[in-house]
Design brief:
The structure holds 2 protein chains of 2 kinds. Chain A is mainly alpha-helical. Chain A has helices spanning 5-38, 44-56, 59-70, 75-84, 92-116, 120-128, 133-144, 146-161, 165-170, 181-190, 195-231. Chain B is of the alpha+beta class. Chain B folds into 2 domains: 2-241, P-loop containing nucleotide triphosphate hydrolases (Rossmann fold, 3-Layer(aba) Sandwich); 244-368, OB fold (Dihydrolipoamide Acetyltransferase, E2P). In chain B, helix 4 (118-127) packs antiparallel against helix 5 (143-156). The chains are: A mainly alpha, B alpha+beta. At the A-B interface, helix 6, helix 7 and helix 11 of A face strand 7 of B.
Chain lengths: 232, 369
């Protein structure tokens, strides 16, 4: 089975948007998860709630809110356009923002659990050995939270890969720019006599999902094995 | 306080005064610890030992307090000074070793190294007997091995002060003795003052030079170990039934045939103890339990007591918690020994303060450290 240019385009865009989404939410997610795992502060519950909103809100609502905030006339969007000349709606970068927001809670949840499981006593021990906070975090906390980091990243990537609602609302369905796999599939389903093409895309989507599941399972098993080796 | 610090030759002296409320527990301690040797921090659980240790390390910030190590102020709540743990240069050996599970032993040891000194690394690894463990993961170490690695890791960070929080906890008898030997050797060879926390009177009298007795968050006493062991009012805290004295002397002879060592306390007084491996001329410390000393009014003949020393009863006390025994101090030359007799012996022998007696000690009752 050879893929048509349109199918390649959809796969390429899905991967591009998915990777870009993970790339921007990863540093932010690590920071936020660390904050939630290690510190008590005012408004912690509120921050926690805000982060989890995309999990419970209809994706269209998230897309609409993004338009309000980041659209050319939006509060932040206006400033972005006038100062750096960037406009996010109707671009693949915009799609990466939308799918990143949708994937963010999945990343933070997994990472936070894993960071909370890291013994603060080890961090205290590292600080008495002369390590400042940054070194403690990068050499002790984060490495010990790698299982959660992997799980969270794979989950977030899978979510961003197949994001539909927020993406179509905020970034629209533009071939070659924002039409990822689910949007391409949706377009085919809407058109008459495209059942065969739709079925092909459907199979591709299943294959991609299965592949990422297998990779994530393999990574998880490898990490577990390495940790068991450590425990002897 | 500043003047008392500047007059001291070694700059690593620790002086502190802290006040900390932790729930129902109130820690109010004032301390001035020597710049060298081992200072024992002793008290029952809940007396504030570990809290005090955490304050010294900077892992906890007291509500109010001042602390200086050498000339450096580490804490002054009034002036708003608080040096964080990673800039204090205070090494800590925690009760549970706390090795980093994702680094090999070698990686754990080098984690805190400030400057490359391969020779020092080798020295400390050898001193602690952990050469064979370097490539292992911490999960594969026994309890005693993990503690030794933790000690090495703390030492290699080149601390100006080393804190040890009950490093023998959870080890069985033989492992405990072995690790204690390593620690003793180390404190003699590495010139860093050590604060050693323990609730075990025997363990702490084995290792400490200076002793701080904590009780309910307050410093009950702080002095040279030998001096505190003599105090009648601390009998209960410092071992009760096992109250003991420490004597130091120089090895002057080994009797190979009978496996005995002769120890000179001064020019006139010698002790005979079970043979030790300490070389001739070396200074060793022996511990003698108060209940292992017998008294006679005149030197007895034909006795198995190998040590007969002329002594003067310099002080005595009958403690309220033990009304049928008498605690006494025996002055022998420049030394003082603690002894304990039954009230009946005391009365029947007609003993009094200032009397000349002969102190009898069996060689086998000595515990060489």
């Amino acid at each position: 089975m050879t893929l048509s240019p349109a199918e390649w385009e959809a796969i390429r865009l899905s991967l591009l948007i998915g990777l870009a989404a993970v790339a921007w939410i990863l540093p932010l997610g690590i920071g936020v998860a660390w904050l939630l795992a290690r510190y008590e502060f005012r408004g912690k519950a509120l921050l926690d709630g805000l982060i989890h909103l995309p999990l419970v809100l209809p994706p269209v609502v998230v897309g609409y809110l993004l338009l309000v905030a980041l659209g050319r006339q939006g509060i932040i969007g206006q400033w972005l356009y006038s100062t750096v000349g960037v406009s996010l709606p109707f671009t693949w970068q915009g799609a990466a923002v939308a799918s990143g927001v949708m994937a963010f809670p999945l990343l933070v949840r997994a990472l936070r659990l894993s960071l909370e499981a890291v013994d603060p006593k080890l961090e205290a021990a590292a600080s008495t050995l002369g390590a400042n906070r940054w070194r403690v975090f990068t050499t002790i906390t984060l490495p010990l939270a790698i299982p959660g980091l992997l799980t969270g990243t794979v989950l977030a990537f899978a979510r961003a890969l197949s994001e539909f609602g927020a993406t179509i609302t905020f970034a629209s369905n533009i071939p070659g720019e924002t039409r990822n796999l689910p949007l391409a599939l949706y377009t085919l389903i809407q058109s008459p006599d495209q059942e065969a093409a739709a079925a092909r895309l459907c199979i591709i989507a299943i294959l991609i999902a299965l592949t990422s599941l297998v990779i994530s399972e393999w990574l998880a098993r490898r990490t577990r094995q390495r940790l068991q080796e450590r425990d002897g | 306080m500043a003047s008392s610090i500047t007059t001291l030759p070694n700059t690593q002296r620790l002086a502190l005064q802290v006040d900390q409320q932790l729930g129902d527990f109130h820690l109010a301690a004032e301390l001035d610890l020597p710049a060298a040797g081992v200072s024992g921090l002793f008290g029952p659980s809940g007396s504030g030992k570990t809290s005090l240790l955490r304050l010294i390390a900077g892992l906890e910030k007291p509500k109010q307090g001042v602390m200086t190590l050498g000339g450096q102020t580490l804490l002054d709540t009034q002036k708003g000074i608080f040096v964080p743990p990673h800039r204090r240069r205070i090494g800590v050996v925690f009760q549970e070793a706390r090795l980093f599970p994702h680094y090999r032993v070698r990686g754990n040891l080098t984690y805190g190294i400030r400057s490359l000194a391969p020779q020092r690394f080798d020295e400390i690894v050898e001193l602690l007997g952990i050469e064979a463990l370097l490539e292992r993961m911490p999960g594969m170490l026994s309890g005693g091995e993990a503690r030794r690695v933790a000690i090495g890791r703390a030492l290699l960070s080149e601390p100006q002060l080393l804190l040890m929080d009950e490093p023998l906890t959870g080890l069985d008898g033989a492992r405990k003795d072995e690790l204690l030997r390593y620690i003793t050797r180390l404190t003699q060879q590495v010139d860093i003052p050590v604060i050693y926390v323990s609730h075990d009177a025997k363990e702490i009298t084995d290792i400490a030079d200076h002793l701080v007795v904590l009780k309910a968050g307050q410093v009950r006493a702080s002095d040279k170990l030998g001096a505190l062991l003599q105090r009648f009012d601390l009998t209960h805290e410092l071992g009760g039934f096992d109250a003991a004295s420490l004597l130091e002397g120089i090895v002057v002879a080994h009797d190979e045939a009978y496996g005995l060592t002769h120890l000179a306390l001064d020019n006139e007084h010698q002790l005979v103890l079970p043979g030790t491996s300490a070389p001739m001329g070396s200074r060793i410390r022996v511990r003698i339990l108060a209940r292992d000393i017998a008294l006679a009014l005149t030197p007895p003949a034909n006795t198995s007591y190998r040590n007969q020393l002329n002594a003067t009863i310099s002080d005595f006390a009958i403690l309220p918690e033990a009304p049928y025994t008498v605690e006494l101090h025996l002055r022998i030359g420049t030394f003082v020994l603690r002894a304990r007799l039954t009230r009946k012996s005391w009365d029947e022998m007609g003993l009094k303060q200032g009397m000349q007696v002969t102190a009898l000690i069996r060689s086998v009752s000595f515990n060489a450290l």
